[in-house]
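Exercise: predict the fold of this chain.
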Amino acid sequence: MIETLTPPLLGEELYKKVKNDFIGLNKKYIIADGNKTRRVYLDSTASTLMMGPAFRTAERFLENYSNTHSEMHFGAKICTEAYNWVHKKVLHFVKADPNEFTCFFTGSGVTSGINRMARVFSQVRPSSNIVLISIMEHHSNDLPHRKHGGQVIHIPLDTYESNLGCVNIELLEKYLKQYKDKISYVSITGISNVTGILNPVNQIASLAHDYGTNIIVDAAQMAAHAPIKMSGFKDLTKEIDSLIFSGHKTYAPGSPGTVIARKSILSNTEPEEVGGGMVDRVYENSYVVKSTFPDREEAGTPNILGSIILGASLEVLDRIGMDYILKKDLMMTNELLIKMTSISSVVIYGDTDTVNCPRAASISFNIIGMDHGLVAAILNDYYNIAVRNECFCAHPYVEQMLQQTHSDQIKKIKHIDNPWHIEPWMGMVRVSLGLYNTREDLDYFSTALNDIVQKKNWFKKQYTIDTYGNYIHKEFKFTGEEYFNMPMILDEELNR
């Protein structure tokens, strides 16, 4: 009798199975009213929770753990094969032709990868020293280009109803024409970490290539929320030359930053990091760099375990289908926008017309008359809702939106002497979604915002501000050691 295998779950069925299977999703904390409630995690743009299947895959992998770079014993062979599989998985996930592109891991997020590629791309056109980026970039896709690429010029954004939207394609082309021979490369985010606004990266790539330059895409937010296609177009100008994303934002905390780049570009520069594994031969006074990828780009022992977690997570996302994930994401984000815009005193930043300017995952806002830090503290302390506040490592973008929306108010407070913060007006609150968030989460968050607006004066009286600008509850005290005390946990483990 031939045993038949159960076909794997795919698409919507797998989505429904996985969305409740994340580590820490049902974690409970005691809040300010004394009740113990489930955390509602709405901070996925900063870091996502770990996918359960990826976590369990890593546990099983650890039973065979060994270093890579060898196949001379069983464990080393298993680990090397698994590690190599992850590289192939990444290339498949971003639709990058393995004959043209390679993938390598570096650092713990996008920052290391973008620094690396900024150094590489600055050598492709050494006589050119201008890098075009957008005003909406995270510091990770801004500062490395200032340091390694030369002069950074920020491309303005489209404006609909006076709100900042996507990258302005017409102005991008104008800059490409104006600075044609001086442009080293273009670097653009796929999805803003502040507003969730999506940029047409392949259209931007086509323009860049039409004017003889290369493009880097910061996919830190894009990888978990939208399909990526780096190659495989009939129109080759749409291809992306290098793309970087973060595992910790892709349901794989603890995994490395991931760089995908053209082999032809990398081959023309010596690897930035040198050490074991990236050389063919070392002599007393010289060494020979490997010509094979990704070995030449990964010096030393890699983050093997983190890479396995990442590969498992990407495989699950692939099986669900990134087109399906984006569809659900756009729908949830749009529903949340509608709920939030209906609440008086809530100001949403960035274009809210999702037909002209699609948004996925992130929405930044303020409540008029309340500091962003206070709103974030209240959401945490009274509702167990995890959000983030301040400027999200995107100062120019945040400042431009705040000045555009609140210019009159800012003029009144900008020069006030406030010792705990140089610019107390400078910030927002960000709510961001992941695979695990539900309509019930959106309803609960909207109810919390309504409550805060209705009782803002009462809430203000419950807090003081410390010397660092943090809002501290006058009575409710939280200590992390009640929930995670490493020495105590080790004692419990050792005394089992």
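Check your answer against the key: Residues 418-422 have pLDDT under 50 and may be disordered.
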